[in-house]
């Protein structure tokens, strides 16, 4: 079977989804999807004993919530930081097109000096390029930052959430087991 993706779908994905759904939003979508699926899989794993299932469900929920929360915040923060250090100024324009562009201030360490061999970008086109550059640079910064936040924030937060949720999940499993036993006794 061949899947055909027409130009309308490609344009929608590239122009709309690609423009508005960036790294933080992707992490949020991933977290929400995981929260809807993974705890359910752990809950219905009857190969494990009830205590293991309860801890597994609580730990999975804790990991997802902590990872999503921290991941989204770190990504947004890193993109914001990249934007604060990448302001640009036009150094040379030719007939309304950009020839040279560079950092606006000394602190704009993420903005390189750039020269177009053929000036063919309008300020509006360059602004779109710059926004994508800032988001990419922010995502790279976030990736580096998350090497540390995974251990410093995610792991302790996961432990706290797991401790809080385990008794409730244990009670839910116990209630469901009792309900099944009552139904079996009545039939």
- Can you tell me the residue ranges where pLDDT is under 50 for at least 5 consecutive residues? none
Main sheet specs: 3 strands, antiparallel
What global shape is seen? Answer: elongated
Approximate helicity band: over 70%
Mean pLDDT rating: 91
Assembly status: single chain
**What would you call the structural class?**
mainly alpha
Radius of gyration: 25 Å
Strand order of the largest sheet: 1-2-3
Beta content comes to: 5-15%
Q: How many strand segments?
A: 3
Number of H/I helices: 4
The separation of the N and C termini measures: 48 Å
Listing every helix as H and every strand as E from the N terminus to the C terminus, the arrangement reads HHHEEEH
Keywords:
three-stranded antiparallel beta sheet; 4 helices; mainly alpha; single chain; 187 residues; 3 strands
Q: Explain this structure to me?
A:
- There is one protein chain.
- The chain has helices at 7-20, 23-43, 50-84, 123-186, and strands spanning 88-94, 97-103, 114-115.
- A hairpin with a 2-residue loop joins strand 1 and strand 2.
- Helix 2 runs antiparallel to helix 3 and helix 3 packs antiparallel against helix 4 (123-186).
- It has four helices and three strands.
